[in-house]
Amino acid sequence: MTDLCTPTLKLLSSKQSTIYRTLLSSIINDSPEMPDIVVRVGAHWRQQFTFSSRFHGQTELDLIYFVTMLEDLLRGQEKSRLILMTDTSENTGRHLMLNWIQSMLGRCAKLFLLCFERPPQFYENWLPESFRQKLICMNGSKDTDEGGEPKFSLLQVFQEVAQVEDVPTCVVIDSITLPALMRPVPVTCAYLHKLATADHVVQVATLVHRDVIDQHSCGLLEHNASSVIDLLPSPSGSGFACQIRHCRPTGKVFKTKEFFEFDDSFHIQNIGPLKLLPQTQPMPPPSSQEPDPAASLADLSFKLQLTDREREARSQVVLPYLKDGSGDETSTSKIIYQADEADDFDEEDPDDDLNI
C-alpha cells in the first residue's frame, strides 16, 4: 500500500534522482513541517518546482509529490471498474455524483442511470443538452410491483446493458442503499461485480449511505469496489473533503485525502490535497497538588463532612466481621446432637456385601 502524502523520487529520471536526492532528504529531515507543494510528473501529471532559501551554499529544491486521485478518477485517467462513494446525511455525495455522470457521458457512448432516490428529471435538467441523448434512465423508485418492490433490479439492469450494441457503456446507480436493504448484501455485491466485469462496460459508479446500512454491509460493498471515495467533513468548515482508496489493476493500492469545492452550478473545482489543521497545543501536565475535597463540598445545601468528634466515634465502632480482642481464644466448640423419635437409622451396613 502506498501513502501518496509522502515524498517519492521514483518518478524522476536517474540523473534527476542523483541531483535531488540529497536536497530532498535534507529538507525532509530538517524541516519541522512538510512543504505544501503539489507536484506531479508524467503523462497526465502536473509539475511544479519551487526554489527556497539556500542550504549549505546551494539552492534548495522543495519537491513533494501528491496525486490528485479524485481528478484522475473523475476524468477517467485512472482506470477503475467499480467506484463506490460513501456519504452521510451531513456530508452528501449527490453533487459529486452529478459531476461523475457528466464526466462519464463525455467518455462513453451510452450511460444507464438507475434512479432509486431522485427522479430522472433531476439529473436530466442539470446535464447539458448534448449529453441527454446518450442517457438511458430507469426510474427504480416509481416503477414498483404489487409487493412494493422496485421493478428495476440490478439483474434487470445487467440484462438491459447486455442488449446494447458493443459500444463503450457506463452504468450509474444513484444509490445502492435501497437494494442493499431489501436484498442480501452478498447478492447485491454479486450483481455489481457482474455489471462491472461486463465486456463493453467501462465503469460502474454508485453511492451508499454509510449512516443507513450497518458497518458490515458497507464493508462488503467497499471490498467489492476498486475505488472507494468516503465523503468527510471539511476540517476548515468550508468546502468538502474526501478520503480515497484506489486499487489499480496491477494490485497497487493508493490512498489520498483531498479537498474540493463546488461553484454555483455544482460543478466541481479546486481539487487539491487536504491540508490538515495545525496540531493543537499539548495539554499541560496535571498539577502535583491534589484538590481539597472540602472546597468542593463547601457550597452544598446539605452536610457531607464529619467533625473531629464524629470521626473519632466512627473509628471506635467495632464492625461485625472484626475481632474485638476479648474472650478465651483457647476454648473449643462442641456439637451436641439429641436423637429424635422420627429419626430412622438403618442398622445394617449397605456396603457389607461388597468385597473390598
From TrEMBL:
Skewed-composition ranges (Acidic residues): 340-356
Keyword Thylakoid (UniProt): no
Listed GO CC annotations: cytosol; elongator holoenzyme complex; nucleus
Principal place of residence: cytoplasm
The protein's annotated pathway: tRNA modification; 5-methoxycarbonylmethyl-2-thiouridine-tRNA biosynthesis
Molecular function GO labels: tRNA binding
GO biological process entries: tRNA wobble uridine modification
Ranges in a coiled coil: none
Subcellular localization(s) per the UniProt record: Cytoplasm; Nucleus
Pfam families attached to this UniProt entry: Elong_Iki1
Annotated segments matching region Disordered: 320-356
Entry keyword set: Cytoplasm, Nucleus, tRNA processing
Recorded family membership: Belongs to the ELP5 family.
Protein name: Elongator complex protein 5
Native species: Plakobranchus ocellatus
